[in-house]
Protein: ArsR family transcriptional regulator
Amino acid sequence: MTQRPDAPADAVAEVLSALADPTRRRILDALADRGEATATALAAELPVSRQAIVKHLGILDRAGLVAGHRAGRESRYRVIPERLEDTARWMDRVAADWDSRLAAIKRLAEGS
Amino acid sequence: MTQRPDAPADAVAEVLSALADPTRRRILDALADRGEATATALAAELPVSRQAIVKHLGILDRAGLVAGHRAGRESRYRVIPERLEDTARWMDRVAADWDSRLAAIKRLAEGS
DNA sequence: TCCATCTGCTACCCGATGGTTGCACGTGTC
DNA sequence: GACACGTGCAACCATCGGGTAGCAGATGGA
Structure:
């Protein structure tokens, strides 16, 4: 696990709200499965229209979880793990922060 | 970091959508700061009404990120790191999964 | 006991968002 | 060149979710 500088807060925010939607998570799953896929291929597998998939891919792209490139007349998308790892580390850091704060308060309550 | 069994998918989903809202993140921040706080105290600090805070605390509670107990006529809430750690681990696992799938596909593309 | 205060509903408003349909525009194929 | 297929864009709809206001019910303090 390479040690990148901490993710900016709004990048984390975008990842979180992108990941909050179940359909989006299913899209990511399907994408990770195939390595690469087009919006129409994903629409064939999931119970939503192609246009809905396209919208979701746009959001996932802006969050940096996915990247697309044009190949002939179709545009293929693939998954990118980097931002997800960043967000996981952010979350771990926050959890650790909570832990230490709670411990400090507990010490304080017990009279130093 | 203790090794709990993997968090169920819908618990992760609840944490993610709870964390997706900026106001909710600010509430968690403020809560972690003070160790404990009431809804009215938080409403005094944040730019939303007490009722909004109450709703958010309800969502955070259902996600398991927060717990409240009644003390006299006021109900105090505190933050709970456990679910956050679970979700971070889930996220790390998914990212690792993506990585290995991408690697496998790359090997395949390069002809075994 | 009376009052102030804090909580816990309920009803309501409005903007964001997930979803759909329809159509026009490239691009590969015969 | 004609056709098929995939994409991209725009309009539109319905629901969900964040936010507010108002009121009734506890609970501690004077």
